Amino acid sequence: MTQVPSDAAQSAHVLSARGVTVRYGGLMALSDVRLDVPPRSIVGLVGPNGAGKTTMLAVLSGLQRPASGRVWLRGEEVTDASPQARARRGIARTFQQPELFMGLTVREHLVLAHRVRVKRRRLWSDMVDPRSLLPPSRAENERVEGLLELLNLTRVAKAPVAALPLGVSRLVEVGRALACEPHVILLDEPLSGLDMKASENLLSVFARVAEHVERDISLLLVEHDVAAVLALSSRIFVLDFGVLIATGTPEEIRNDPAVRAAYLGDDELSGSQPPPSWGHVHGGVEA
Amino acid sequence: MLEYVIAGLVLGGIYAIASAGLVITYVSSGILNFAFGALAFFIARFYYYLHTQQSWAILPAAVVAIGLAGPAIGVFLYAVLFRFLRFSPPLIKVVATVGLLVAVPSLAVVIFGDQAIVSAPGLAPEPVRVFQFLGVPVTMDQIIVYICVAATVVLGAVILRYTEVGLKVRAMVDSPAMADLSGTNPGAVSVGVWAVSTFFAGLTGVLAAPIIGLDAHNFTLLIAAAFAAVVAAKLRSLPIAVGVGLLMGIATSLIQRYLPPNSNWTTEFIDAVPFIVIALVLLYNLLRYRRVDEVEGVGGALDRAITPQGESRLAGSTTNALETGSLGLVSKYAGPLVLIMAAAALPLVLQGYWVGLMAQAFAFGVIYLSWTLVTGEGGMLWLCQITFAGMGAITTAELATNHGWPVLAAVLAGGVVAAAAGLVVGLLSIRLGDLYVALVTLTFGLLIENLVFTLPAFVNQGLGLTLNRPSFATSDLAFAYVCLAAFIILALFILNFRRSTTGLAMNAVRWSEPGARMTGISVVQMKVIVAALAALVAGIGGGLLVVAQTSVAPGEFDTFLGVVWLAVLVTIGIRSTAAALIAGISFVMLPALAQSYLPSWTGNVLPIFFGLGAIAAAKYPDGTLAEQSRQLRRVLLRLAARQSAPLVLDGLPGGPAPAGAGGEGDGSNGHAGEQGGSRVVENVP
């Protein structure tokens, strides 16, 4: 791992990216994108369909190798690290279509993530150690039960995830991410497909996570529901056609002409209409 | 040179027609028909029955066998089996066709008799006329093959490119869901395609019969070779499949020109050429694209959304607390304990020959445990476990007989050799889709069978290798208990593995590789370790088997025999260690019982039974026996939890369930249901 050589400010951020470029054949998915996530904060990443948001998350999490650009986690470069190596160093993520383990229960998701992060040795020793048949340790139980309680999942802890509705599945993914004891969680459109009540529940969970979890955790929220992002985030990055077109506070983003043009088109922008009702942009659900 | 090209074009033509049939079936239904060779054999045998045994003329026999019976078989198979597999995962589809591969040849024997037919007529009148073309003799049979290939290529291209039917088929290739929504009846298209596909199977069979004789094994091997063209075509491109099939035939023929004639190894190498082609094509694609997956680039968002990802995978059931937690240890393990005790009692109550068979049955139980690991736990369908068993067997015999190793140490060494091979196969298959994993492992098995197991040192002039049992267990009874002890130790290891953190991590990798990676789990490590462990277990099982038999014969570890082994296990239950023991006992004892106490034809009914059992995996992915066991467990659970009310998930963020998760019609065993807008999970403690 190399320390950040030139931009010392990046070491103050929990997650940073500079000059990220991704091409799919002739298509430029991301072009020279930069992004910073400060500690203990919620940062939004928005943009119209095809803007490159999910590709950016894939680059940050290591699932996509960029053509150029670098990524740092807490000041250490992780550009060449594998996804699992980044996960072990503190990057967790959720997926738009939940990537759950259908053969495991809700509780087992959290137990596994906890052991991989905290008791990695057990990943191998348990295989030949008959003590794996014994009950888990008290510390592990406390940690897992605490997370189940925080996410309101205690009642379904022993249920197989295949039987859960989408909203609960998303919570399980968040729980699994938290059990990894991450420094930053990347959330890929967590509200998509949820009704208003479920969206509100999930947003309140994010707020609780930011407030109540004992360690510093930042959230990078990719979401179509711009109103929700504006309400939750302290800083927002806006992508359009793979290019970073704006960055700033929610208020700055709300009034940024380039952002409004990207979402509404130049023709509509030229009129004198009020700022857009962000909650309904692109079919998003207003939180 | 020209004579080699002309001869190669015949073989290539047969490959081309077979690959055309395989490709159109795959693109229309997502099924790579591993039973294509078995169907070709069945129709060719029917043609032989009509033409030779019933003295029908060539034309009516060909019309009835190829033109009527072939398509009718296709329509029948679609109606009773394949239409239910449209949305099934690749593993289920593969296992269903593997079941057919096992059942159909035995069905042919039951219907037409078990007469060995080395020389079979083709479509040319006999005596077959020979023409001279540029000084090279060309038979009428060869000319008919060329005509059939040309007709296949021209008609296929015209139909696919210029007709409405072709347009519909191509639409289904690109996006089945959108084709469906556009008014295309996928059932009508599929039934037509299956009819055409089995027509091609029949044509392939009748054209190939004069060259390879009427032997089911040869047919299966021929079609497995045609898989090379299908793999090169990425399962989907008809022109590439036909072209590569033709080229492969010519290349195979030309290679013969440069290899020493009259050498057994030359024959084996020629047989292995298509499998070398498969290995090279997959290696090239892996290096170029980093991942080779049958579902990549197919369909749109809607297709992905309606594809089930839940429990309908083979052996997709869970060990979650919902099903097992309330029963307690005694209830949970009572069945397996009773089974072990009954199995342990059998050698005591049986005598002589039957005690020796029990030792072999327990050794087979060990081999079956390797599938419990790699398929039951790892979710990967490997078709080469018999090859690992063969490696273990040959290593054991070689070390114990020729190098003076203690027998049990040699058995362990055999396991280690197999594990090393499993490691290599595991590494190669990490970035392959489920279907390609099955193909790669089949290819690996056929390559080792052709190029390694046939080495003179192992064949020993057709005598094979012999060895003695360990001094403390020379009797059948004592060695039966050695094998049973090995089974129990390895079964306990698998049970522990399943509950261990490694087992959880393997389960995670199996269901979602991106999710596992983002949890900090190395997918590579998990897949490789399970592959190596499974190969180790198979190798040990193979070693124990040859010690039980006190010999290993050449050809004993035939890759396609391994497919029959798999069918037996799938019938009983791929995930249960107890099922592995029952499968071992069934595979050894049932044929022996049939041979000793029943009419001889019943011996051919057993493969049909096991083949049908494997086909039933489409409905019961965990095996029929395991399904019955689960039903019983559910009844016990309901009785135990009769007082507890169902839990309603009100107050939790709801919404629709994820795609494929317990949805109706996806074959899942999910326990969720809708009740007035709230989702209910039964019996949550």
Task: Give the strand line-up of the largest sheet of chain A.
Answer: 6-7-8-3-9-10
The biggest beta sheet of chain B, please?
Answer: 3 strands, antiparallel
Secondary structure tally: strands of chain B: 7
β-sheet strand percentage of chain A: 15-25%
Quick check: average pLDDT of chain B?
A: 83
N-to-C CA distance of chain A: 41 Å
How many domains make up the 3D coordinates of chain B? 3
Radius of gyration of chain B: 26 Å
Count of domains of chain A:
2
- Give the chain pair forming the largest contact, with residue counts: A-B, 69 and 57 residues
User: Looking at the chains present, what oligomeric state does this protein adopt?
Assistant: heterodimer
Describe the 3D structure.
The complex is a heterodimer of chains A (287) and B (685). Helix content of chain A is 37%, strand content 21%. With 287 residues, chain A is an alpha/beta fold. Chain A folds into 2 domains: 1-90 and 183-287, 3-Layer(aba) Sandwich (Rossmann fold); 100-180, no CATH class. In chain A, the strands form 2 sheets. Chain A has a 6-stranded mixed β-sheet, sandwiched between helices. In chain A, strands 2-1-4-5 form a 4-stranded antiparallel β-sheet, covered by helices on one side. In chain A, strand 7, helix 7 and strand 8 form a beta-alpha-beta unit. In chain A, helix 3 crosses helix 5 (138-150) and helix 3 packs parallel to helix 6 (166-179). The radius of gyration of chain A is 20 Å and the shape is globular. The termini of chain A are far apart. The model of chain A is unreliable at 1-5 and 267-287 (pLDDT under 50). Chain B is mostly helical. Chain B folds into 3 domains: 2-257, no CATH class; 321-631, no CATH class; 643-681, no CATH class. In chain B, helix 15 (353-377) packs antiparallel against helix 23 (523-549). The model of chain B is unreliable at 309-326 and 646-685 (pLDDT under 50). Chains A and B meet through helix 2, strand 6, helix 3, helix 4 and helix 6 of A and helix 20, helix 21 and helix 22 of B.
